[in-house]
Amino acid sequence: MKVAATPTLAFALLLLSGTPAAGQTTLILTGGVNSASMDFGSSLNDFLGVAVPPEWTESLGITRFAAGAAVAFQLSNRWGLQVGGAYSKKGGRREFGTYDWNSDVLLETDYLEFTALGRLRVKSPDEVSVVLLAGPALSWELGCGVKESGYIHGQQYEAIRNCDARGPLASQRSNVDLGMALGGAVEVGMWAGRGISLGVLYTSGFLDVSGDFGSALKHRVLTLQAGILYPIFR
Question: Cα(first)–Cα(last) distance of the chain, in Å?
Fold first, then answer.
């Protein structure tokens, strides 16, 4: 009986902790997946610069990786500020074509993203905090690639290139993206102020990142992430 009781007691002690008090600062380490897509716009031409207008088109999402760190400042019992940075892999996929040509384009972009999010803690049990998040997101592009494959007049083709190798379109691209992030997290307190979190964050980009002729190409990203909480000032 003593052997069985020991791990049970240890687990119970691990879960004992209150929500962050006013004035506490917490380091949050996160990792997760991005469900990324692109808002291509109704008149957007091929991202590779092909000016043939498609008769049909479909935008699809892709799944990529994200990881980062943030520092949360608890300004009062309800309000706080969360400043963070993340390595975020974004992009999207688009299928389109005409009667004798169809193409599948995969756009993959990597960003270093910085956020400054307001935090609102919703009333919850002592060991659990529900946090709502909102604020701006500023991203700097680290890499961008395009893969296109399909058929022209029955002949299969494939093209893989860097986004900056697209002739006159490359000079129109934006390497910086500015957007708005909205989301929330459930934070569970554990031993000595440490804890874990599960959250979701939706980021909508405002800037055209393509430099295309007809319309704008903007990021849309839904991030599912888990995190570890470490108090650094109390």
Answer: 38
pTM for the complete prediction?
0.80
Residues facing residue 162 across a β-bridge: 145
Instruction: Produce one character per residue of 122-161: b if its CB has 16 or more CB atoms within 10 Å, e if not.
Output: eeeeeeebebebebebebebeebbbebebeeeeeeeeeee
The H or E element that residue 233 is part of is: strand 218-233
Tokens coding 169: 């379109």
pLDDT of residue 234: 65
What's the burial of 69, exposed, middle or buried (CB within 10 Å: 0-12/13-18/19+)? Answer: middle
**Rounded Cα gap, residues 46 and 49, in angstroms:** 5
Mean pLDDT over residues 200-227, rounded?
84
How many residues in total does the chain contain? 234
Contact status, residue 73 vs residue 25, Cβ threshold 8 Å: yes
Enter the tokens of residue 191. 């031993």
Q: What are phi and psi of 7, to 5 degrees?
A: -65, -30
